[in-house]
Amino acid sequence: MGQLIYVFLGFLILTSVSISICNGNSSVACIESEKEALLKFKQGIVDHTNRMATWISDVDCCRWTGIVCDNMTSHVIELHLRSPTFDYYDADEKSKLGGKISPSLLHLKHLSYLDLSNNDFKGIPIPKFFGSFGSLRYLNLSYAKFGGEVPHHLGNLSNLKYLNLHGDKFFRAMYVKNLHWLSSLSSLEHLSLSFVNLSKASNWFPTFSALPSLVELHLSHCQLPPQLHLITSVNLSSLFALSLSGNGLGNLSMMNWVFDLNNLIYLDLSSQISSAIGKMNFAFNLDFSSNSFQGKIPIRCVSYTLESLSLHNCQLYGHLTNKLGNFKNLRKLDLSDNSISGSIPISIGELSSLKALYLLQNNLKGNLPESFGQLVNVEYVDISNNFLEGTLSEAHFFNLTKLSTLYAYGNPLTLDVDPSWIPPFQSHHLCLGYWHLGPQFPHWLSSQTYLRSLDISNSGISSTIPCWFSNFSLQLEYLDLSDNQIHGQIPVIPSFEGPLPWISSFLTLLDLSNNNLSGSLFNFLCSRMDETMEMGFLNLENNFFSGELPNCWTKWPYLEVIVLGDNKFIGKIPNSIGTLQSLRSLHLRKNNFSREIPVSIRNCTALEILDFGENELDGNISSWLGYNLPNLKILSLHSNKFSGHIPKELCALNFLQILDLGHNNLSGSLPRCISNLSAMVYSTNDSFGNNIKYKFGYFIENAFLVMKGQILEYDMTLNLVRILDFSYNSLSGNIPWEITSLHGLQSLNLSHNLLIGRIPSNIGDMIFLESLDLSANKLLGSIPQSMSKLSFLNCLNLSDNQLTRAIPSSTQLQSFDASSYVGNQLCGFPLADNCSEINHVVPSTRNRKGKDMDGLEVSWLFVSMTLGFSVGFWSVLSSLVISRRWRYAYYQYLDEMWWKVNHLCV
Ligand SMILES: *[C@@H]1O[C@H](CO)[C@@H](O)[C@H](O)[C@H]1NC(C)=O
Ligand SMILES: *[C@@H]1O[C@H](CO)[C@@H](O)[C@H](O)[C@H]1NC(C)=O
Ligand SMILES: *[C@@H]1O[C@H](CO)[C@@H](O)[C@H](O)[C@H]1NC(C)=O
Ligand SMILES: *[C@@H]1O[C@H](CO)[C@@H](O)[C@H](O)[C@H]1NC(C)=O
Ligand SMILES: *[C@@H]1O[C@H](CO)[C@@H](O)[C@H](O)[C@H]1NC(C)=O
Ligand SMILES: *[C@@H]1O[C@H](CO)[C@@H](O)[C@H](O)[C@H]1NC(C)=O
Ligand SMILES: *[C@@H]1O[C@H](CO)[C@@H](O)[C@H](O)[C@H]1NC(C)=O
Ligand SMILES: *[C@@H]1O[C@H](CO)[C@@H](O)[C@H](O)[C@H]1NC(C)=O
User: Fold this and answer.
1) Ligand 5 pocket residue status of 200, Cβ below 6 Å
2) Which residue of 196, 468, 674, 801 shows the fewest CB atoms closer than 10 Å?
3) What pLDDT, in 10s, does the model give residues 704-734?
């Protein structure tokens, strides 16, 4: 799996934050007087963990920890002495610096950056002389446990852009008497005085309002004197973020001026409301009706710096307005995973600094504006999974010379460009699934010689794979051409040594499923046998590949998922599959594989899914399936020619959730140990329908995460489903009562066997059953009363048995139509016979026979529906493993399924 992760590495790199490096490599030696000043400063500092160990006179002070010198003048310009934060409180406390701050620091005349935050100065005041660092631009004294009055001398720092005096929640010792000095800090962009006592600071509002460059203002828990009623207009036109929480400012209706703050993105007014809710740290939902984002923003999820704005997964709705274009400095904009609707505003083209744009997973509609093509700096764009439509032309990409990643999957966009178009970009990752690109293979791709991943699935391509494709296919790590009508054979590259495959050895994912490809896989799988392929995922499902499956799997040792279902393969399943130690999922369904399952498969101990359904396999079901493949979650041998008994060893499969042995020639009895299938004993508590909605949201969030994430998701989906199907065999004997302890089962199908005896009386314990088919057996006795407890039951078929007496009355059981019960001696609604006759109490053999004849009128619609339910379920699940697209299909399918189940069956 490690290999697959690289595919999305680009994404991860872009999301990671930039890390500032404090110790510059200065090629200049430090100035002696400044070194002495620093050594003097060190003498006053209490440093328990010896963080300033490098501060010794033998060493050039520009090399000391926390010191940055100007690389031209060698003056000390930055002092970084913030304490790191540890997980353990003790470590945290110990590493903090304290003591006295020597005025010798004043010798650092060129100091522009001073960070003493997160230390413990035990309540000493902020030194007045800090007001004399004339070059200072950045001053961070937050969480440093200074006390007393904040010196007004700081007002001399006219170059200051960043001032953070954020106090400590538990150590509120700093206060301010008046704030006049602030008004001279005309360059100030960021100011935090949170947890500084401002209760004496009358007329505080005009002071802040007069700071022309202010972008961020934090005044939480400052005991601000309420004077909001005095505020009529504000002039904080550049303000981006404002927090006023925890001040008891009272009536919010007086805060209408907030709506005049046109650029506000972050607003924290929590605990302002004096009622009980106000006590909770609750984030205020504000309607930003005059803002760039029309809609409601639960503020807590906002994170931004001046260059980056992230509102990822904020339950944001509403739409984007043209004011979006105002964020000219924005380099990264992330609005992913919300419910933003409407169209992308034309002003998006004005985001001239933008490098990364994330609009994925929203409800954006309409065209992608042509102005998109003006984003000269954009490198990374992810607009996948919206409802964007319309036609894109060359203009949409005109100036995107730096575009290296375009994820636009899942939008029905049409690309209409000249066949000879050469894009201005050289991309690495293109994910254009669901676009309309066909019918010809898009020729412009041939220019993308640095491409590493390509997804043009479901894009209406109906040609063959062109020769030029090998221009770059040989360097691809990820290739998805699925769901097109591509025909012909998998290409090969002719060479002296014979045909070579047109993929590289480092391709990790290949999906050619749902096309019209044909021919043998021999060249593809077997050429260059000396080379090891890194592929982890191979999907060739639903094509016309034919012949025997070549026995060349030893060169593909990293495969985790193989999907070859729905092709025309014949012959034996090759032995060499047994060498695949990483294999988790093997799908060979719907081919013509024959003979026995090769014993070598017992070596694939990582297998979780084994799908051999709808083939011509025969022999016994081997007991090693039970003890050599302990991780199996799904085992389907459906519709083959297996004979003999169901081996008891299968009961050891603790993780098995789907066991489908239907449509074979199995005989003997159902193993009593079946209650050991513990994964079927437990179930998720949620009702199925609710889960789907939840999962849907969940999956969307993870849609572009690495493969590992997807495997995880698939686990979670599987948690929903538990199915047992032994139908259409010759199983005999009783239904063991032990089966009813499989409380988690959703579908149980034992139909068309030779089962005798009674339906276990506590069948009602299987409360999650949604489908129960016991039809066409020889079951006797009455329908157990407990069955009326099965409130999720959507499909029930008890027809064609020898059941007698009245159908127990319950809303559920009476809601099925008569076809669920025909072919028995049952009476009561929904059957026409209303149980008045005595012979229902003691049914006579004769009568039963007569009824049996009548009972032949089984509802075939119903039977095939039920069958469709589990088979359909099966085929969907089997292909669910990796692909995002499959997940969507799966959910659509489930929705349909539910519709079917609810409307046809009930
Ligand atoms: C500093 O950088 C220069 C050139 O980049 C390099 O030659 C030198 O070794 C570096 N010095 C240290 C101490 O890292
Ligand atoms: C000196 O520092 C400036 C800004 O920090 C940087 O742009 C420049 O490249 C540096 N020069 C050398 C020679 O390292
Ligand atoms: C200021 O210091 C605090 C506490 O160490 C830190 O959380 C914050 O990020 C610093 N500010 C900046 C802009 O680095
Ligand atoms: C602040 O600057 C004024 C002149 O601009 C000066 O007189 C005063 O001494 C300075 N205060 C401090 C603390 O540096
Ligand atoms: C804030 O200052 C005022 C007046 O100096 C005082 O009454 C109040 O107790 C202070 N608040 C805190 C939390 O120390
Ligand atoms: C608001 O600020 C701008 C400059 O930032 C200034 O030109 C304008 O006069 C101010 N308006 C008021 C009412 O203070
Ligand atoms: C493309 O970018 C250039 C340079 O930034 C600019 O002059 C030109 O107008 C842009 N063209 C379009 C169509 O955006
Ligand atoms: C199965 O694995 C064992 C040990 O790992 C090995 O000796 C044996 O040859 C393998 N069998 C097959 C068929 O690969």
Assistant:
1) yes
2) 468
3) 222 222 333 333 344 567 889 999 999 999 9
